[in-house]
Amino acid sequence: EPREIPDYCLQANKVIATKRRRNYLLLRSQRPIYPGNWSFIHQQRAYSEKYLAEIMRHLPENLRFRKEALQLAWDTVKTLRLTVDRELLRPANERQADIAEQWKSASNDLMLLLNNLLADVSDLPDSLGARSELLVFMRIQASQLRDLVGTEANALFAELAAKRIPDRQLIESLNSLHGRTLQIWAQLLAANQRLPNAGLSVALENVHLRWLEGLRPLQEKILDDAWNKRLSEVDLDYYLVMLAPTLDAIIELTDGINHMVITVTQERLKSSQKQGVLTLGSILVIIAVVGLVILVLVRRFTRPLKAIMHRVDALTERYADAQATNLPAFLGDDF
What we know:
Elements: H1 5-28, H2 35-58, H3 64-88, H4 99-122, H5 130-161, H6 168-194, H7 198-227, H8 236-325
């Protein structure tokens, strides 16, 4: 059903974001790929296939254009991953120079379509109340935050891995991207003030700790060095150590909000079903009362009528008997 699509969108987006990051790092890394990495990659592919198939199966007819665009983007990713697998088997210095960027771009396109679909489906008519609408808004914002933070982090990782100084255009683009992430972050905090929840507050605090106090200072150091045309001394491995927990924290936040949306939806659905049963019961009671009233009225009016008809029948019988008694005797000679 349409209400199940948001959960599938979030799960698919989470898996694709993880694959995007893992494959991108492996393609940019000088280290060999380990068997455990292959196992993880194939496992994530199976999950993404499952979630996207469910999305396609549940999409309503009025969102056919989304389905077609999503299928095209998914086919592009599946075709490209054959090249990615082949390149991962090659030594790092023999890989296609732009394969990592191609993979990131194709994954970003697919994730953007999933986010757009999430917004579309969340706008479907639903009378779940203001609390549910606020949670749906937070779910969309958290998903977008994860994608934007991941895009920003991967771009700076690529510069660190290549030992390049980001140019001014990239610096301005990343600063603009970070401004957008801060806007989303402010909206999430404001929404949490309207809908205080202990678990949600803890998840937001964890994101703040991992992202704004952990990863972000490293990114600002890289950008500051680049602005002054210096090669950053931020350690690549340390950057990755700070990156992974940040994205995991945002994923946990998104999953937590999604769980709250599902819980509220189920509660409202149960309440609606209960209300429906009560309404049906009320209707049956009204029908029974009306039937009883009609029965009483019928009996009240039919009893006198029956009594009158009984007296009429009695009088008719008496009159008939009297007529029969006064008839003259029949003589055969009268003819």
